[in-house]
Design a protein that fits this description.
The chain is of the alpha/beta class and 284 residues long. Helices cover 45% and strands 16% of the residues. It folds into two domains: 29-116, 3-Layer(aba) Sandwich (Rossmann fold); 140-265, NAD(P)-binding Rossmann-like Domain (Rossmann fold, 3-Layer(aba) Sandwich), CATH 3.40.50.720. The longest helix has 22 residues, at 8-29. Nicotinamide-adenine-dinucleotide (NAD) is lined by residues 141, 164-167, 169-171, 188-190, 192-193, 198, 211-214, 217, 232-235, 264-265, 268.
Length: 284
């Protein structure tokens, strides 16, 4: 029998603790954190995230400002907006909503957000701190996976952990966070898939984390008995949202498995709030 590893109860716990701390700091210092979201042009998927961020922020006492910038703004004009936010003392943290319009280089913009105002933990200086294990903030999805793992009570020390996907926002930072916990960490990616050795790696995993973005890329029959399975993938198949792991067959083997939707997703926005709060606290 598997246990369904849902993100919402963990997210609620973190938000309750954040709300109490924000209220306490407001009484003590008369200030609250402010998160500014930059959105360039209209975008349907950004609009969904922005709505969820606003709701989460306001529910715990973080001020949220959405700065909508025109679609046709030049790279240097957007850079000027970021420069101003870096200087603005009322702004605690900044997130750049993806995707950005063609002609805008998001990497340059992310690197321009001051490391002390980076809400997503994606500035190279903040990513670098993960290497030494000394970090206050981290990429939200990778951190959400670590929270889910911690909630199971598993000791990662020496465990066979396989991460499928090596993106900069999920797989790479996550693999370092796992190494910091002394997990025996294997990272698989497109070349593993092309070589045909993905099943061999997955079959060894006592903890499996999949962040690929291809529905059913991991087959249920590959899952080791008793494995913990965290499915980060979000894929639209017909009118349904599914993960990267074949859920029904994987659940027959797993001890814990995240649902999609409802696993990693609900936690990601909460970690964004915690990052914003950490940036605010560091400046107090
Ligand atoms: P990405 O496209 O940047 O990276 C995909 C990774 O999968 C790459 O490392 C690539 O090498 C690897 N890959 C591709 N095909 C493969 C194969 N056949 N076998 C093995 N590896 C393969 O994607 P991303 O931004 O890391 O996102 C991955 C998924 O996670 C997407 O579905 C995305 O929507 C989802 N996601 C969810 C959340 C959340 O909050 N739940 C947040 C971020 C991303």
């Amino acid at each position: 029998m598997f246990i369904l590893l849902e993100g919402k109860p963990i997210a609620e716990k973190i938000k309750t603790a954040l709300a109490a701390e924000i209220a306490m700091l407001k009484t003590k210092h008369g200030k609250s954190p402010k998160l500014v979201a930059l959105q360039i042009g209209d975008n349907a998927s950004s609009a969904v995230y922005v709505k969820a961020q606003k709701k989460a922020a306001e529910s715990i006492g973080i001020e949220y400002e959405l700065k909508m910038l025109p679609q046709d703004l030049s790279q240097s004009e957007v850079e000027n907006v970021i420069s101003d936010l870096n200087k603005d003392i009322s702004t605690s943290a900044v997130i750049l909503q993806m995707p950005v319009p063609k002609g805008i280089d998001p990497k340059i913009l992310v690197n321009m957000i001051a490391p002390g105002k980076d809400a997503e933990g994606m500035h190279p200086e903040n990513l670098g701190k993960i290497l030494s294990g000394q970090y206050r903030i981290a990429p939200c999805t990778a951190m959400a996976v670590m929270e889910l793992l911690e909630s199971t009570g598993i000791k990662l020390y020496g465990k066979e952990v396989v991460v499928v996907g090596h993106s900069e926002i999920v797989g790479k930072p996550l693999s370092i966070m796992l190494l910091n916990k002394f997990a025996t960490t294997t990272v698989c990616h497109i070349a593993t898939g092309e070589r045909g050795t993905l099943p061999d790696h997955v079959k060894r995993a006592e903890v499996l984390i999949v962040a690929v973005g291809k529905a059913g890329v991991v087959k249920g029959e590959w899952i080791k008995d008793g494995a913990i399975v965290i499915d980060v993938g979000i894929n639209k198949v017909g009118d349904k949202i599914v993960g990267d792991v074949e859920f029904e067959s994987a659940a027959k083997k797993a001890s814990y498995i995240t649902p999609v939707p409802g696993g990693v997703g609900p936690l990601t926005t909460t970690i964004l709030m915690r990052n914003a709060m950490e940036q605010f606290k560091a400046k107090l």
